[in-house]
Structure formats: C-alpha cells, structure tokens
Amino acid sequence: MARYLLTESAKADVRQIVAYIRQRSPGSATRVRSELRAAMRKLAEFPGIGHTRADIPDEGLRFWPVYSYLIVYRHPTVPLQILRVLHGARDIERILDAT
After folding, report:
1. Residue 70 has what pLDDT?
2. Which pLDDT score is estimated for 2?
3. Cα–Cα–Cα angle for 50, 52, 57, rounded to 5 degrees
4. pLDDT < 70 regions, the chain
5. CA angle, corner 87, sides to 85 and 92, nearest 5?
6. CB–CB of 18/29 below 8 Å?
7. Distance from C-alpha of 16 to C-alpha of 10, rounded to nearest angstrom
8. Under 8 Å between Cβ of 82 and 7
9. Domain residues of the chain, as ranges?
10. Among 41, 64, 67, 80, which residue's CB has the most CB atoms within a 10 Å radius?
11. Separation between Cα atoms, residue 42 and residue 6, nearest integer Å
C-alpha cells in the first residue's frame, strides 16, 4: 500500500474544514473527512492522476478535487507529500506563494 504524508498546514486545513462543516452537519463532516482520506490513499497509489494548473508555475504541484476542495500535493514524492487541502474558491496561487 502506497503511503502519504500531510504537512502541518494540510493537517490544519483538514481540521478546519471538518470543524466548519460539523457546525452545520456532523454527518456531512464525517463523509467529507472520509472522502478526503480515500482520495489521499488513491493519490498515493496513482500520483500521476492529478492535474496541474496554468496559474501555478511549479510544475511539480498537482491538484485533485474532492467536493469543493482541492488536495494540493507534490509529484513525485515518496511518501506522497500532501501540501494543502483548500477550498477551490480561494486564491490558491496566493496561498501557495505564501507557504
């Protein structure tokens, strides 16, 4: 089984996402967390399936959508390095430039 590693920022992102959703729907928060984990396992096994973005100059970064969120990871790294988990409506380029 392929492995993945979340940065501290990614861990904080997931905690904040789940806490935000839990305020409105505990069941939805559990589903989102499960879907994020499943997607991370899938990415660790098949890291090439993510996409790049024209607005992000770092070609080593890949993106994978889960609901309204983007898993941002570095391809290829072993274990797969999950950098951030961000809402797709946020200014991804600015956030990644700051990290």
Report:
1. 98
2. 80
3. 150
4. 1, 99
5. 80
6. yes
7. 10
8. yes
9. 4-98
10. 80
11. 14
Residues 6+ apart with CB under 8 A from 5: 79, 80, 81, 82
Question: In terms of CATH, what superfamily is 4-98?
Answer: RelE-like (3.30.2310.20)
Note the pLDDT tens digit of each residue in 44-60. 999 999 999 999 989 89
CB under 8 A, 24+ apart: contacts of 51-59: 53/92, 55/92, 55/93, 56/92, 56/93, 56/96, 58/96
Taking the alpha carbons of 79, 3, 72, 25 in that order, is the dihedral positive or negative? Answer: negative
Q: Is 95 helix (H, G, I), strand (E, B) or coil?
A: helix
Decide: 7 and 95 in contact? Cβ < 8 Å: no
For the entire predicted model, the pTM comes to 0.94
